[in-house]
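Summary for the steering committee. One of the milestones for this cycle was to obtain a three-dimensional model of the protein with NAP bound, which we needed before selecting residues for the alanine scan. The sequence and ligand used are listed below.
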Amino acid sequence: MKKYNVAVIGAGVVGVEMLRVLKQRRFPVENLKVFARSSRDIRVDGDTYKVEPVSAEGFCGVDIALFAGTEGEKGAAVTYAAEAVKRGAVVIDNGADFRMDPKVPLVVPEVNAGDLKPIRKWMLSGKNKDLSGGKESHKGIIANPNCSTIQMVVALNPLHKKYGIKKIIVTTLQASSGAGKAAVEQLNNETAGIVQGGFCNLRAEGVERAMPQQLAFNCFPHIGSFTEGGYTNEEWKLVNETHKIMHAPKIRISATTVRIPVKTGHSESIYIQTEKAVTAGQAGKALSKAAGIVMIDDLGKNLYPMPLDAEGRDETFVGRIRQDAFDKKGLWLWVVADNLRKGAATNAVQIAECLISNSR
Ligand SMILES: NC(=O)c1ccc[n+]([C@@H]2O[C@H](COP(=O)([O-])OP(=O)(O)OC[C@H]3O[C@@H](n4cnc5c(N)ncnc54)[C@H](OP(=O)(O)O)[C@@H]3O)[C@@H](O)[C@H]2O)c1
């Protein structure tokens, strides 16, 4: 089996999960480099990885670069994705910087693996076409969608194909790890402070925090920053990314994103309106056959998906499917997935698996 030189950029909560997923899924790695801002050794599941400071030269000889550095102006991919491609790597980026670029496929393999075709062809041809002139249909970069978008499209695409979705109303309940390692530390510190200190409202304490509000014993409808129409940019990601991935720009989508005091695992309460009438039973049957989905929907036994079920798993979990009591073309679903795995690391490694599947 052909093996590949892989780089992971970022050693935060997603980067660490990336190392775990590469090993667990036995991705054929020849040589692995881990880059972040500062050098150190990290331990993941008993293995030690050497973290080196990221640099353009570090990408020499890398075949696949999995970016999990923070996003924004100084984000790792903004600075280094083109440098990595120039040196012969295919980039898979977890950040938001390239997701809506028309020359960058935004991929969830269960939904639109076909969008990888031009980049796979380029990779199989030995990457011998120069991309620097901007004439190619791609940039050698593939974007991994937002965590809450990934689990939503995995659950909705099979229903869209069969019943045609016209409208989606979604409320997300997102875990602290979705905002990175600083947010997980905030939740841990607040929880310990409250339990040990016996007070519940830390706002008066003037504590510094990574998230906009106290999270322990609280929740807040504020993920990302407020933008057009009073929605947050996280809410717009659910709209725009879903349109791009499902190739369905006409679906009307409205989202509310909420941070809750769970460590890992995002939950979503989703209402859809379909073109054709669909019962809960029909929807459940379609989803139980769909790739990447596990149904947990047995009300008699109090079984429905929870973040605790999803943590450490690669699948998307669906339950509580109910038909709208007043509309045969309306359906509720409850969808849960591990934001660090299917919402980030697993999806990125699955993309890499698709890329190499023809070259093995
Ligand atoms: N958390 C999630 O559920 C999730 C889901 C989907 C997508 N994402 C995306 O994945 C990316 C990583 O998120 P995270 O949650 O893992 O964040 P995190 O825990 O805060 O870790 C960020 C990592 O990026 C490194 N980094 C930051 N700027 C860098 C730069 N300019 N060059 C090289 N490395 C840099 C940091 O290096 P140091 O350790 O040296 O400081 C750190 O290791 C973000 O773009 C995020 O939006 C996250």
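Key point for the committee: The chain has two domains: 4-145+344-356, 148-338.
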